[in-house]
Amino acid sequence: MRHDPSILHVDLDAFFAAVEQRDKPSLRGKPVVVGGIGLRGVVSTASYEARKYGVRSAMSTAEARSRCPHAAYLGPRFEVYRETSQAVMAQMRALSPLVEPLSLDEAFVDLTASGLTGLTVEDVTAIANDLKAAIKEASGGLTASVGAGTSKLIAKIASDLDKPDGVVVVPPGTEAEFLAPMQVTVIPGVGPATAQRLSMAGVRTVAELQQLGEDELIRQVGSAHGSSLHRLAVAADDRAVVSDRETKSVSVEDTFETDLLDRSLLTAISDRMAHRVSERLQKAQLSGRTVTVKTRMHDFTTHTRSSTLAGPTDDPRVIARVARRLLDDSDVSGGIRLLGVGVSSLADWIQDDLFTESENEEVPLELVELPERPRERLSGYYPGQDVVHTTYGEGWVWGSGRGVVTVRFETAETPAGPVRSFAIEDPELRRLERRPPDDVAAKDSAPETPVPETPEPEISGPEISAAQAD
DNA sequence: TCTGGGGTCCTAGGACCC
DNA sequence: TCTGGGGTCCTAGGACCC
């Protein structure tokens, strides 16, 4: 353990939203929410003006809109954030060569690496204020909050205490008493599940955690987590600041506006994701042996399927083929809300593996074109159906994947073949309240009306949005 | 009006090998 | 013929972070 508060944790305030306010003066002083703006979007960052209305990170955008309808809702511009982040990180590196970025808006700085020793609380406070000024200058006006202490844990917690635009330096020797009155959830790694378990053992504050024996803690939360928590509770943290952490995995995933059932569509999307993963691997000069496909069902249960190759690859065709096979093994019948493709077991070299090469030649993999826009659109409610399903041209069936429904789409003979019939069974979701359009509501509630063999959908009828379908 | 996308780390069971 | 542990690798899932 070091004796001076020489570890800084720097955290940019409401970073994404602050960049937007910087670039668009009309947004300054106003509530700004950056995040997914689609049906299933969540909030990445809310400006402090928006936080007054209860808008928080990770909240669904729909919820945010209801809390703060007059805010500006913006999709993220990662390229701009990355640029700004680099300018900010450069200021930290000018202060000390040992900087560990945790994300675009956060980093640890170890001052001892710059040769500074015997730093007092006053010294560090002055350094932190200088750094904040430099960051503001380099970023076009962004503010940061800085925490400092004798360890990562203390610096990290301290940076959160005086947000925004604050500096908190914890005097050496006071760490355990600094933590004692706080909730256990201030300790990074203690999330809802761990907090719940600790709570059942009567532990809510760090002081109570300090009293709990290590054996008991391990019984509650497992061995690795338990022993590290035991040490962190008494502020015994000697984790080093590490500047170059190596990448362990690369992945791409997407949540769909409505749940997807159509295997050929999913396969096309999977192929595209495999190519994007490959591009990112190649850019980073990485390759990996394990391909993983991730699916999330309508009820949010998540499954992964993975397969490990004999040697590492960054070849889009190899990744795509393995992903296809894994996707084929996945159950998609209830509709999936998310699909992801990832590569792990990374190596920083590429094996010219005859095995994988020969596989390539056997099955050349062609990217299936995704329809840019649906050419034709059929939609409607039918008796016996309690959810809207919409068919698009080209044989895709897009379903909401909710509720009990058996719908036949027998009309569409498309270039990709007939649109198939499908059925979804999910008793739990049947109870969901629905608001079908008025003209269909009557039919919908009619008892025991048989499902027509060949329903006659309204063609080019009024658009039934997925929001209404829910 | 539920619940993103990019990650990291840990656990647990089974296969396999010595 | 019956029965050891230990170690490593792989797979699946879950908690957590920003």
From TrEMBL:
Residues 418-470 are annotated as: Disordered. Gene3D superfamilies: 3.30.70.270, 3.40.1170.60, 5' to 3' exonuclease, C-terminal subdomain, DNA polymerase, Y-family, little finger domain. One of its GO terms (cellular component) is cytosol. It is found in: Cytoplasm. Residues 7-191 form the UmuC domain. InterPro entries: DNA/RNA_pol_sf (IPR043502), DNA_pol_Y-fam_lit_finger_sf (IPR036775), DNA_pol_Y-fam_little_finger (IPR017961), DNA_polymerase-Y (IPR050116), DNApol_IV (IPR022880), IMS_HHH_1 (IPR053848), Rev_trsase/Diguanyl_cyclase (IPR043128), UmuC (IPR001126). One of its GO terms (biological process) is DNA-templated DNA replication. GO terms for molecular function: damaged DNA binding; DNA-directed DNA polymerase activity; magnesium ion binding. Keywords: Cytoplasm, DNA damage, DNA repair, DNA replication, DNA-binding, DNA-directed DNA polymerase, Magnesium, Metal-binding, Mutator protein, Nucleotidyltransferase, Transferase. Mg(2+) binds at residues 11, 105. It catalyses: DNA(n) + a 2'-deoxyribonucleoside 5'-triphosphate = DNA(n+1) + diphosphate. The keyword Protease does not apply. The active site is at 106. Its cofactor is Mg(2+). CDD domains: PolY_Pol_IV_kappa. Transmembrane segments: none annotated. PROSITE patterns: UMUC (PS50173). Its EC number is 2.7.7.7. Belongs to the DNA polymerase type-Y family. Poorly processive, error-prone DNA polymerase involved in untargeted mutagenesis. Copies undamaged DNA at stalled replication forks, which arise in vivo from mismatched or misaligned primer ends. These misaligned primers can be extended by PolIV. Exhibits no 3'-5' exonuclease (proofreading) activity. May be involved in translesional synthesis, in conjunction with the beta clamp from PolIII. Monomer. This is DNA polymerase IV. It comes from Kribbella voronezhensis.
